[in-house]
Design brief:
68% helix; 7 helices; mainly alpha
Length: 134
């Protein structure tokens, strides 16, 4: 993960993700961004996700009438899952002080965090915090 900051690798990853999306899904970039934020904030650092990938996703969404603010709100959906990433030092401190194995902690809490993210996604769309489609 240390090679990502300061390089164009994250931008290239975002461009690849956008290129891999099925044709016609671009108007749905807010919920797509929300769903992508779940694995991306778990697998790559917050800095790489928010400063590298999010601008590319927001630029693509803007071309379809979705505001950058809506994309930013959508990108926060995955934060519950991010806290269980091996990239979060405070989680190591928490489990270390509790005497729990990191893997056991993840196996127990990750389904709850994922469910929480999906409930937050549904609630956000229901309340029109970001649109299902423009």
């Amino acid at each position: 993960m240390g090679v990502l900051p300061g390089t164009d690798m994250v931008g290239a990853m975002a461009t690849s993700v956008i290129g891999a999306l099925p044709n016609g899904i671009e108007p749905y970039m807010a919920p797509v961004t929300a769903l992508l934020s779940i694995p991306f904030t778990f697998l790559i650092s917050n800095d790489a996700s928010y400063f590298g990938m999010l601008p590319v996703l927001a630029q693509t969404a803007h071309a379809y009438g979705i505001s950058p603010q809506e994309i930013v709100c959508a990108s926060l959906i995955g934060q519950q899952v991010h806290l269980f990433s091996p990239l979060v030092p405070s989680t190591y401190l928490l489990v270390g002080m509790s005497g729990i194995e990191f893997g056991s902690h993840q196996r127990f809490t990750l389904p709850w965090a994922l469910t929480s993210s999906l409930v937050l996604l549904a609630t956000s769309m229901l309340l029109r915090i970001f649109p299902l489609a423009p």
